[in-house]
Amino acid sequence: MLLEVGFGGGEHAVAQAEAEPDAGLIACEVFENGICSLLSRLVPEAHDPASAPLPPNLLVWPGDARALLRLLPEACLHGVFLLFPDPWPKARHAKRRFVHPGLVPLVARAMRPGATWRVASDDPTYQAWVGEVMDAQALFSTPPPARERPAGWPTTRYEAKALAAGRAPLYWSFTRL
User: Of 22, 64, 86, 123, which one is the catalytic site residue?
Assistant: First the structure.
């Protein structure tokens, strides 16, 4: 089972579900616009929504991923994606970031040993935060981030916007120890 946290427009979730048809993907999004965007990708206007073919391996969690992580069985995930999350750049908002010292153990609990947590961000504040938080924990390996999107990572519209604006994304692949 895979988990995508904050799928935005859903382009990565759809691409991931297509790329790994034998793996289930739970796509989490709290914002209605994102959920509607994903559904519009899955159910084109020409189709009757009741009869549109939906990926059988894709589930949508229309709520907070933290609540889902508390419900998931231990070691059930073989991958987690957090791609271009809201950086919450103000120091007083840091507690809202998904990569957070208090959440790392919750994510780790749901992941199998050897599972990969992919994180990408173009925001310098969030990039520094990810490095700081992940370097201070012992549940995941912490290799340096890649400066180019690794092979096998479908692009997202947020990444395209960042690159068009001249911002330099970083891409991490943390492995559950």
Answer: 86
Give the DSSP H/E element, type plus range, for residue 107.
Answer: helix 104-110
Mean pLDDT, 10 residues at a time, the chain of 177 residues: 93 92 94 90 72 84 95 98 84 79 97 98 93 97 96 90 95 98
Query: How would you classify the pairing of strands 25-28 and 2-5?
Result: parallel
Q: 86 catalytic, yes or no?
A: yes
CATH number (3.40.50.300, 3.40.30.10, 3.65.10.10, 3.40.50.150) of 2-175 reads 3.40.50.150
Per the CB < 8 A criterion, the answer to whether 139 and 108 are in contact is: yes
Question: Contact 72/111 with Cβ under 8 angstroms?
Answer: no
The whole-angstrom separation of Cα 121 and Cα 133 is 14
75-109 burial string, b = 16+ CB within 10 Å, else e? eebbbbbbbbbebbeeeeebeebbbbeebbeebbb
Q: pTM of the predicted model, to two decimals?
A: 0.92
Token pair for residue 135?
A: 């370097």
